């Protein structure tokens, strides 16, 4: 047993070493990713349920590593946050998304119905004291109409230091910028929080949408979220809608917008433009 124990220890040690090595490697690679042009934004359409038109997009980060290939946010955001790199990356994401959106609105795609671009914001980024000033400056410099920008915050971002959070959100709102509560329902925020914080949009997390058709608890939960949202006058976007049945349930219970594979995955710029052109022509 003693021998086995030692082997197990060595096994874990090797695993740990590998893991640490990989993290250090990724952190260093991420450090140069912006400079080397390896980051890219994919865009997922946001659809209005009533008209079935694409009315906006959410920008989602992708990393094209020269050797490792395509790296998804789940494999990099945490490293970016812990190393502080997320601040610079987040600034790049915002500028890139605003610039792209202004371009879309100015080109022939102006016939499309897109009027909002959503950008994810990390808690680490939001916590920076100059966050609001930087956002407002970036919006002005890129020429985006402020009300077309929607910043997506999660509950964990707004849960700490409520007074500072409220002040920052109010300043963004006064500048005309919209704020979504992302992944709604997965965190710990109470109704009281929702009432105090000036959100414009609520995004129902994919984990609640998944089983709405088969699970009566989830169905009841989503119904409750939707009626609450209408009291608070939030726009509601359902995330992760994959089937017609989910769409129908949400639509019949007053949900206004959705994202999900039923319409499209997040796609590259060219592909997103094709989706818009297709819609304009049909
Ligand atoms: P999120 O903000 O909740 O984004 C939605 C995620 O759900 C995306 O994963 C999207 O690809 C996926 N998704 C959309 N529709 C469906 C569907 O119908 N079915 C399924 N199964 N999945 C769907 P992605 O792109 O891998 O992003 C994961 C998370 O990484 C995001 O979750 C967000 O929290 C974070 N993230 C992405 N881009 C950024 C960024 O630029 N900055 C920051 N701070 N976080 C980001
Ligand atoms: Ca999001
Ligand atoms: Ca989400
Ligand atoms: Ca999520």
TrEMBL record:
Keywords: Membrane, Transmembrane, Transmembrane helix
Gene Ontology biological-process annotations: cellular response to nitric oxide
Domain of life: Bacteria
Membrane found in the keyword field: yes
GO molecular function terms listed in the Swiss-Prot or TrEMBL record: cyclic-guanylate-specific phosphodiesterase activity
Protein name: Diguanylate cyclase/phosphodiesterase with PAS/PAC sensor(S)
Residues of the full protein shown: 495 to 776 of 780
Domain EAL: 23-280
